Amino acid sequence: MDPELEAIRQQRLAQLQSQYKGGNVENKQAMEEKRQQMEDMRNSILTQVLDQAARGRLNTLCLGKPEKGKMVEEMILNMAQRGQLSNKLGEKELISLLESINQQTQRRTVVKFDRRRAALDSDDDDL
After folding, report:
1. Which positions are tagged coiled coil (predicted)?
2. Contacts 24+ apart (CB under 8 A), 72-81
């Protein structure tokens, strides 16, 4: 192979790699800006449909149980987009919404008590 041609190929490869890396940084910045805009839009919609006490309760829920908080936020945003909310939700309405969600997602736990294991600690040893 021609050493001059190989040098040109290496230069071109380095140039393409630097363009790709530079574009990747710009792409990350654009994605971060878009994510921030979406988060701002979510917050503005939630501020419009929730009164101050309900917003505070939702923020507290998000701190304690982030998954459930996001689920409730999504539900409220969907209700707002469909026009199901005629006026601002108060704290009482938010609590009733949370209670209905808890009833729907409540898991039943079954406790089994094994009497045979409990029988190992019998009172017969005291005799």
Report:
1. 13-48
2. 72/97, 72/98, 72/101, 73/42, 73/46, 75/101, 76/46, 76/49, 76/50, 77/42, 77/45, 77/46, 79/49, 80/45, 80/48, 80/49
